[in-house]
C-alpha cells in the first residue's frame, strides 16, 4: 500500500509508489506487446490457411511491413521477461510457452502443407511464417538454456 496509517497523519511511501508504477508500467507494456504479437500470429495463420495473400494484397503487404516491428516487439518482450524472471520480485502471469507452441505448430503445419499439398507454395507468406517460427523457436531455446 502506498499510503499507510502509522497513528499519525497518513504517510506517503515514495519508494513503494515508484515500485508499483514500474510494475504496472511493465504489465501494460507486456499486455500491449502480447496483444500485438498474438494478433499478428493469428492474422498470419488466417492469411496462410485461407490462401488470402493474393486476394487481400494490402493485408499481405501490411503483414510484410509489420514483420520487422513484430520481431522488435518480440525481442523487447523477451528481454523484459528475462529481466523479470531474474528479479523474481513477483510471479509472472504471462504464458510465453503457449506462444512458442502456437508458432511451432503453425510452422510445422505450414511446412507440411507446403511440401505435401499443391494448394500451398513456398511463397512470401510461407517465408514470413518460416522466419518468425524459427526465430521464436531459437529465442525460446536460448532462454531455456540460460534459465536463472
Average pLDDT number:
79
What does the overall shape look like?
Answer: elongated
Radius of gyration: 21 Å
Task: Report low-confidence residues grouped into runs of 5 or more.
Answer: none
- Strand order, largest beta sheet: 1-2
Beta fraction of the residues? under 5%
Main structural class: mainly alpha
Number of helices: 5
First-last Cα distance: 29 Å
What is the tally of beta strands? 2
How many individual domains? 1
The ordered string of helix (H) and strand (E) elements is: EEHHHHH
Helix content class: over 70%
Largest sheet: 2 strands, antiparallel
SSE layout:
Elements: E1 3-4, E2 11-12, H1 14-49, H2 57-65, H3 67-87, H4 96-116, H5 124-145
Antiparallel strand pairs: 1-2
Commentary on this structure:
The structure is a single chain. By secondary structure, the chain is mainly alpha-helical. The protein has one domain (33-145). It has five helices and two strands. It has helices at residues 14-49, 57-65, 67-87, 96-116, 124-145, and strands at residues 3-4, 11-12. Strands 1-2 form a two-stranded antiparallel ribbon. Helix 4 runs antiparallel to helix 5 (124-145). It is elongated. The two termini are 29 Å apart.
Amino acid at each position: 500500500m502506498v499510503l499507510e496509517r502509522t497513528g499519525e497523519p497518513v504517510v506517503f511511501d515514495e519508494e513503494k509508489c515508484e515500485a508499483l508504477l514500474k510494475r504496472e508500467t511493465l504489465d501494460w507494456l507486456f499486455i500491449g506487446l502480447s496483444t500485438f504479437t498474438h494478433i499478428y500470429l493469428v492474422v498470419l495463420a488466417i492469411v496462410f490457411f485461407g490462401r488470402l495473400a493474393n486476394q487481400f494484397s494490402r493485408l499481405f503487404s501490411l503483414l510484410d511491413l509489420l514483420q520487422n516491428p513484430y520481431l522488435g516487439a518480440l525481442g523487447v518482450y523477451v528481454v523484459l521477461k528475462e529481466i523479470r524472471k531474474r528479479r523474481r520480485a513477483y510471479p509472472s502471469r504471462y504464458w510465453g510457452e503457449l506462444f512458442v507452441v502456437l508458432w511451432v505448430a503453425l510452422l510445422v503445419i505450414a511446412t507440411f502443407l507446403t511440401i505435401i499439398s499443391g494448394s500451398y507454395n513456398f511463397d512470401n507468406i510461407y517465408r514470413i511464417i518460416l522466419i518468425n517460427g524459427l526465430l521464436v523457436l531459437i529465442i525460446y531455446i536460448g532462454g531455456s538454456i540460460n534459465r536463472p
